[in-house]
Structure formats: structure tokens, C-alpha cells
């Protein structure tokens, strides 16, 4: 999962919120129990202190000492801590050996670990010491050792529960993101198939009316509209091709008849030029329509499994005489059969355009190559001519743009545009590369090649 993806961030938020909720619940509960335990212990100690100070008011230190011993011996004040000492700290009564050194006279209670007279091990207790009107020191408190042990166990249990909640939170985050991914997977698969040319694909309906169901409905509505527009485009291009080519065909036929009757050299040259221009115009229209159809995704239904190695070998054989007449060579670099589904006619036309460009504008040997690469299949046509500067690549790919109008010839600036459109029709890309020297035009077709039979 990509760390920068929305799904990953959503999983992180789910995980974080669940951990925070568990931490607040567990540690908040522990803090509440500690507070309640402290308040209850101090309340019991204050109640004892108030009761015993009444004895001091009526009988002084002696009466208070007797009351302290009586309270401790009675057993009704289990967990009570009482201690009375004279002004110099000498014990008078109680269950402590002395006033704890860290306990200073105050109106508040302090949590200390102190051992009682009949105990060896120190215990946790809340204590308060105050100086009476006669100078005596009077300590009251409540033992909370058992409560502290319970709270310590609770804290350990809370930490264990928090650790377990981390596991559960991670699992919950995984499940929630998996549910989202599963809901979106059908939509992604549908769009991928549509991109591959199957415009009949639709997102399955699951009957829900949540955001994912709404997304699926909107995607299906959009695909319905795209399919309709695509059908209308096919009809329009077919009609346009017929409407444009029919008068041009009639004009070409008329020029042919005129050429057979004209005898004057100047008139015959004009007729030949008009014929050439009409053929050029028909080729331009056919190429422009091919580009439009390819960019609209029309023609994928005509894909067929083709051995590119054999197809390129045939193309090399066809062009070899023309290239040799120029005193140059054309070769194929392919080590094994590469079989992929393609539109054979359009691909043949695209590669032919590249070879024509290499013959017209390149120099040296022309090399065709085909091989499997990461993510697809590479078809390349390279020459050893001057190439195209990188800063002019965009201009070379623009429609009706020629890098050098002075070159002459029949070019209309549509050759590379057609190659690029054919590459996109095959879910691929086209790149212009420096062949050092010369230019290499690389077509990368999306998808993997089929195993050779």
C-alpha cells in the first residue's frame, strides 16, 4: 500500500483514533479509580481525626492517647494509622514508631511508605500530622496498600489491554481499508477494461445507496454517454470519409480521363500535378481519419494476435529494394518471436510511416527492432541521420507540422501523429530518442506479450 495514498491515510486515522480511544478509556478509568481511592481514604482519616480531637478538647493529651489506643484495640478502625507524640516527638500512643521524617505539619495528606510498629514491611498510607494546642504532634491516616496493589494490577492490565487494542486497531484499519478497496476494485476493473477498448463494461450494481453505490451509478452513466458518443463518432467519421472521398475520387477519375486526351506538354504537366495533389489530399484525409478513430479508441475490436517478429521481417523485405536503391541498408534486430494482440493494419501503417521518414530525412542504415521490456513490448525504428533536437520533439509530434518545409515531398506533417495515436490505441506510448547518431522512434505497447507457440 502506498504511504501517500488516501487509503493508507484513512487506515492510519482509523488506527490512531482507536488507539486514542482505548488509551483515554483505560488510563482515564485508572485515574478515576485512583482519585476515588484517595478521596475515600482521606475521608475516613478525617472522620477519625475529628472524633478523636473531641477527646483532646475534654481531657488533653492523656485522654487523646487513651482514645487512640482504644480505637486501635477495638478493631473497628481496620487500616487506621494513629500516632500521638509530645512536643519533642516522644511517642505517647499509636501504631507508629515516630513521626515520619518526610511528614511536615500541614492541613493536607501525603502518600508515604511507612512501617507500623507491629509490621516489618512499609505500607502505602495517606498521612497528615498536625500540632495541637499543647504542642503535641498528632498523626492520622489510612493504609491504602491493598488499594495501591489493586490499582497497580489495573495499570498493568490497562497496558496489556492497550497493547492488545493496538493489534485490534491494526486489524480494524486493515479490514476497513480492505472493504473500501474491495468496493472500489470493481469500479477500477471496469474502467481498466473500458480503457482497453471494451465500452460495454459496466460497474456491477450491489443495491446499496451509499457513496460507493452512487459512484458506480455515475460511472455507469458516464460510460453510457461515452459509448453513445463513440458510436456517433464512428458514424460521423464514416460519413465524413465517404462525403470527402467520393468527390475526390470523381475528380481523380476526371483528371485521369483528361490526362489521356491532353497532348500539350504544359497542360499534361498541370494535369499530372493536379492528380498528384488529389492523391496527396486523399492520403491526408485517410490519415487524419485514422488518427481520429485511433484516438477515440475505435478499432480495438479488430485486434488479433500477431507475431511482431514475422510482421517486421515482412516489412523489411518490402522496403529493402527501396532502401538499397538509396545505397543504404535496412535490418531487423529480433532474437525471438514476440506475439501480441494488435490492430494489424494500423500498426503496419504506423511502422511504414516511420520507415518512410527514415528514408526521406535520415541517413545510413535503418534498423527495426522488437523485444519484450518491463511493462510491455518495444518496437523501434532507428536511422543514422541528423536526428531531431530534443527542443523540437513537441513540434515534430504536432499535427500538420513539418520541421523543414524546404524538404519538399508529399509529407503533410501527420506521420508521427498517426504513430502516436496508434500507440495510444494499444495502451502504449511513443518516444523520440537520440540514436547517437540519428533518431530512434520507440513504440512501447502496453501489456505483456503472449508466449510464443
TrEMBL record:
GO cellular component terms, semicolon-separated: plasma membrane
Pfam family, one: HisKA
Major subcellular location class: membrane
Alphabetized UniProt keyword annotations: Kinase, Membrane, Phosphoprotein, Transferase, Transmembrane, Transmembrane helix, Two-component regulatory system
Transmembrane segments: 12-33, 157-175
Source organism superkingdom: Bacteria
MF (Gene Ontology): phosphorelay sensor kinase activity
EC class name: transferase
Reactions mediated catalytically: ATP + protein L-histidine = ADP + protein N-phospho-L-histidine
InterPro entries in the record: HAMP_dom, HATPase_C_sf, HATPase_dom, His_kinase_dom, HisK_dim/P_dom, HisK_dim/P_sf, Sig_transdc_His_kin-like_C, TCS_sensor_his_kinase
Domain Histidine kinase residue range list: 239-449
Enzyme Commission no: 2.7.13.3
Subcellular location as annotated: Membrane
CDD domains named among the record's database cross-references: HATPase (cd00075), HisKA (cd00082)
Keyword field contains Cell division: no
Domain HAMP: 178-231
PROSITE patterns (UniProt xref): HAMP, HIS_KIN
Record-linked PANTHER family: HISTIDINE KINASE (PTHR45436:SF8), SENSOR HISTIDINE KINASE YKOH (PTHR45436)
Protein known as: histidine kinase
Species name: Novosphingobium fluoreni
Amino acid at each position: 500500500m502506498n504511504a501517500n495514498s488516501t487509503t493508507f491515510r484513512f487506515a492510519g486515522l482509523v488506527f490512531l483514533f482507536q488507539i486514542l480511544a482505548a488509551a483515554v478509556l483505560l488510563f482515564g478509568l485508572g485515574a478515576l479509580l485512583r482519585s476515588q481511592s484517595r478521596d475515600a481514604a482521606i475521608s475516613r482519616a478525617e472522620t477519625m481525626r475529628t472524633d478523636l480531637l473531641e477527646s483532646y478538647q475534654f481531657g488533653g493529651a492523656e485522654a487523646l492517647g487513651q482514645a487512640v489506643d482504644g480505637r486501635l484495640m477495638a478493631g473497628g478502625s481496620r487500616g487506621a494509622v494513629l500516632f500521638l507524640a509530645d512536643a519533642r516527638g516522644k511517642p505517647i500512643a499509636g501504631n507508629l514508631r515516630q513521626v515520619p521524617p518526610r511528614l511536615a505539619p500541614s492541613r493536607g495528606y501525603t502518600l508515604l511508605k511507612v512501617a507500623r510498629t507491629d509490621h516489618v514491611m512499609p505500607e502505602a498510607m495517606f498521612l497528615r500530622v498536625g500540632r495541637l494546642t499543647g504542642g503535641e504532634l498528632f498523626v492520622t491516616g489510612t493504609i491504602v496498600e491493598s488499594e495501591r496493589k489493586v490499582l497497580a494490577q489495573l495499570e498493568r492490565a490497562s497496558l496489556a489491554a492497550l497493547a492488545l487494542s493496538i493489534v485490534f486497531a491494526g486489524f480494524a484499519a486493515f479490514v476497513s481499508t480492505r472493504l473500501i478497496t474491495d468496493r472500489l476494485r470493481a469500479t477500477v476493473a471496469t474502467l481498466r477494461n473500458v480503457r482497453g477498448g471494451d465500452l460495454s463494461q459496466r460497474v456491477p450494481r450491489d443495491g446499496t445507496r451509499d457513496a460507493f453505490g452512487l459512484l458506480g451509478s455515475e460511472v455507469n452513466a458516464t460510460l453510457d454517454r461515452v459509448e453513445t458518443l463513440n458510436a456517433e463518432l464512428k458514424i460521423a467519421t464514416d460519413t465524413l470519409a465517404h462525403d470527402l472521398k467520393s468527390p475526390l475520387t470523381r475528380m481523380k477519375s476526371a483528371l485521369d480521363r483528361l490526362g489521356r486526351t491532353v497532348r500539350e506538354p504544359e497542360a499534361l504537366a498541370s494535369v499530372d500535378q493536379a492528380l498528384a495533389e488529389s492523391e496527396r489530399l486523399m492520403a491526408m484525409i485517410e490519415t487524419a481519419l485514422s488518427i481520429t478513430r485511433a484516438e477515440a479508441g475505435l478499432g480495438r475490436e479488430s485486434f488479433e494476435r500477431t507475431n511482431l517478429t514475422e510482421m517486421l521481417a515482412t516489412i523489411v523485405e518490402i522496403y529493402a529494394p527501396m532502401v538499397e536503391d538509396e545505397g543504404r541498408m535496412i535490418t531487423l534486430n529480433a532474437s525471438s518471436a514476440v506475439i501480441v494482440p494488435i490492430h494489424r493494419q494500423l500498426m503496419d501503417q504506423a511502422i511504414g510511416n516511420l520507415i518512410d521518414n527514415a528514408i526521406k530525412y535520415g541517413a545510413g542504415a535503418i534498423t527495426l527492432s522488437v523485444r519484450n521490456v518491463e511493462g510491455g513490448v518495444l518496437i523501434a525504428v532507428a536511422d543514422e541521420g541528423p536526428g531531431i533536437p530534443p527542443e523540437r520533439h513537441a513540434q515534430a509530434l504536432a499535427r500538420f507540422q513539418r520541421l523543414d518545409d524546404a524538404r519538399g515531398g508529399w509529407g503533410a506533417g501527420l506521420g508521427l501523429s498517426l504513430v502516436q495515436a496508434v500507440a495510444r490505441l494499444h495502451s502504449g506510448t511513443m518516444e523520440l530518442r537520440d540514436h547517437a547518431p540519428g533518431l530512434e522512434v520507440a513504440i512501447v505497447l502496453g501489456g505483456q506479450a503472449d508466449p510464443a507457440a
